[in-house]
Amino acid sequence: MSCHENIPKDEHGVPGSPRTTKSRVLEGGANMVQDFTPVKQICAHLNAFHVYATDPTRSVEANHYCTHVTEDIRQCLIYDSTKPNARLIGVEYMISPRLYETLPSEERKLWHTHDFEVKSGMLIMPSPAGVPNPAWEVAETSEMRDIIPLYGKTYHFWQVDRGDLLPIGPPQLMGSLISDDKVKYANPKGLAGLLAERDEKFGVDYRVKAEKRKDIEPVERHPGRSIACSQSCLCGSLLLIVVDADYMWNIVEQEKKA
């Protein structure tokens, strides 16, 4: 029997009673009298997919709501959807190459690139209602030029892809999908399979996006590094082993062939 069996749930299955009229009224009042300056600085909504650094077969759609701390640092709240009751599932920090170069070698292993996300059309900036598509495409492509050189560090706290009703367990380091071959680990049908539902939802086509971005210059990518994590059956603790990202992919390939 589930511990949540007798607790009401929302449309996602998340346990908890529906928000009361009192809560809604208080929230409305708070919007008028409290200072929400930090979150009011959110200036971009980006959508892409993250992959678990410990399991490249698992990917999660991520809606990023981002602010600029400086011209070299961005910070994004990550939600599982764009709905009012969207779940906050993680955070991502983005930094410029010149800041990335100041990081110690061990720290660099936790950061990922955005080159493939941009060039493939996976990363989008959903258009707001009422904005003419041609004008928005120009704005989006310009934003992609700014994002492509950035490095991202992402942790997810809520593993919604496996059906968790609450944020369970330790934070999970996430990475970006870096090639068509790597996408097929997350979805055997590749980008077409991974992005079909997302593209329909936002009324976009990743292939059209990729075509419009073909003139965006790719950036030089540092050797891919990541953290692979495995569960110890003896003590139940998490063993963190720093390995090359390519080595991690090779292990997965060997396991699939076994």
Q: How would you explain this protein's 3D organization?
A:
There is one protein chain. The protein is an alpha+beta fold. 33% of the residues lie in helices and 26% in strands. It has ten helices and nine strands. The chain has helices spanning 21-33, 37-40, 97-100, 105-108, 115-120, 133-147, 180-186, 190-202, 206-212, 245-257, and strands spanning 44-52, 55-70, 73-79, 88-95, 112-113, 151-156, 172-176, 225-231, 238-244. A six-stranded antiparallel beta barrel has the order 1-2-3-4-6-7. The protein has a two-stranded antiparallel sheet with strand order 8-9. It is globular. Mean pLDDT is 84; it is low at 224-253.
Overall average pLDDT: 84
Unreliable stretches: 224-253
Q: Report the structural category.
A: alpha+beta
Proportion of helical residues = 25-40%
Strand content: 25-35%
* 3D shape: globular
Largest sheet composition: 6 strands, antiparallel, barrel
Between the first and last Cα atoms, what is the distance in angstroms?
Answer: 36 Å
Can you tag this structure with a few keywords?
alpha+beta; 26% strand; 258 residues; 33% helix; single chain; six-stranded antiparallel beta barrel; 10 helices
Overview in brief:
Residues 1-23 are annotated as: Disordered. It contains ten helices and nine strands. It is an alpha+beta fold and 258 residues long.
